[in-house]
Design brief:
Layout (H helix, E strand, L loop, with lengths): L5 E7 L7 H11 L4 E7 L5 H6 L8 E4 L4 H6 L2 E2 L1 H6 L4 E5 L2 E5 L2 H12 L9 E5 L3 H12 L4 E6 L2 H11 L3 E5 L3 H5 L4 E4 L23 E4 L8 H8 L3 E3 L1 H17 L7 H12 L2
Parallel strand pairs: 1-2, 1-3, 4-6, 7-8, 7-10, 8-9, 10-11, 11-12
Antiparallel strand pairs: 3-5, 5-6
This protein binds NADP nicotinamide-adenine-dinucleotide phosphate.
């Protein structure tokens, strides 16, 4: 590595599946930046020491993926966003301090802004399926856009109740068995569960109660066109897919590490789509 070259990495266990190197290396080449982005397979046990020595290892920052997202919060100085979500996926060094944030929030919002401009104008009610880490990022984002009522529908209702405790009374924990009642007034439906993902059970819901102006967003990106998105399109609804969120969540990390804000372009999307097609 040249002395002036900046490098970042994605830390996970396992980490081979991560598409982050593909995305960041594309931008490094596109913008002619002499930098590097690598994969680092690090166990949970080794994670704290690894990030403590991040600079000594030649890194200006890192993405963090499973199973380290909560640990990343504990070993760094998180911003308000990461703190509220309860997990960090992006680390950077700021005057020798290890800082962290959660870019799934802007990935979620940025993707909707790009795919369905004006999606949040007058949006009163949203339905979020799931209550895990991705749901927390989505709920945080929806609150930031002033959505008045956010139904959180989850198999384990206690976890939806925990989101209300964390994010306040605009969050309505709602049982899966009464999903139709929540869908009827909703202008946005977001799937943040892992249902519908390759290798996971299907997401079997009927979205017919949604109004004709509703938007449907799926965070699952493998397969790219999920059964939920296909159903939404068959009803003539506007959609936003999980790959778009994956690309948009990468923007902030790149800008923190390499000093310029990259663009999410059709070329980049096509590159990652081709990679996903080969699994
Ligand atoms: P997580 O914290 O493990 O949460 C998983 C959620 O799925 C929980 O709400 C869980 O319900 C629900 N679930 C799992 N299996 C289920 C089943 N058989 N029946 C009903 N509900 C089930 O995971 P996460 O980090 O939030 O990620 C969730 C999904 O979002 C994954 O597919 C991930 O790839 C995707 N994601 C995508 C992006 C992107 O950039 N596109 C970013 C982040 C995450 P219980 O609480 O009842 O267990």
């Amino acid at each position: 590595m040249a002395e002036h070259e900046r490098a970042a990495c994605v830390i996970g266990w396992p980490v081979e599946h991560s598409r982050s190197p593909l995305i960041h290396k594309y931008w490094l080449a596109k913008y002619g930046i002499a930098g590097d982005y690598r994969r680092e397979a690090v166990t949970a046990e080794d994670f704290p020491a690894f990030v403590r020595d991040l600079a000594a290892r030649g890194y200006v920052g890192a993405n963090v993926t499973l199973p380290h997202k909560e640990a990343a919060l504990a070993v760094s100085e998180p911003d308000a966003q990461a703190q509220a979500v309860g997990a960090a996926n992006t680390l950077w060094l700021e005057n020798g301090r290890l800082r962290s944030t959660n870019t799934d929030v802007e990935g979620f919002l940025g993707n909707l802004d790009a795919c369905v401009p004006g999606w949040d104008r007058g949006l009163r009610t949203a339905v979020v399926l799931g209550a895990g880490g991705a749901a927390r990022a989505a709920v945080y984002g929806l609150r930031a856009r002033n959505v008045g009522r956010i139904f959180v529908v989850n198999r384990t209702l206690e976890k939806a109740e925990a989101l209300r405790a964390a994010f306040g009374e605009r969050v309505y924990p709602h049982p899966w068995s009464r999903l139709a009642e929540a869908l009827a007034p909703a202008g946005l439906l977001v799937n943040t569960t892992s249902l519908g993902m390759r290798g996971q059970p299907p997401l079997e819901i009927d979205i017919a109660p949604l109004g004709s102006r509703a938007v449907v967003c799926d965070l699952v990106y493998s397969p790219l066109r999920t059964a939920l998105l296909a159903q939404a399109e068959s009803h003539g609804l506007r959609t936003a897919d999980g790959l778009g969120m994956l690309l948009h969540q990468a923007v902030r990390g790149f800008s923190l590490w390499f000093g310029m804000t990259p663009e999410v372009t059709p070329d980049l999307r096509a590159l990652v789509e081709r990679d996903l097609a080969g699994h």
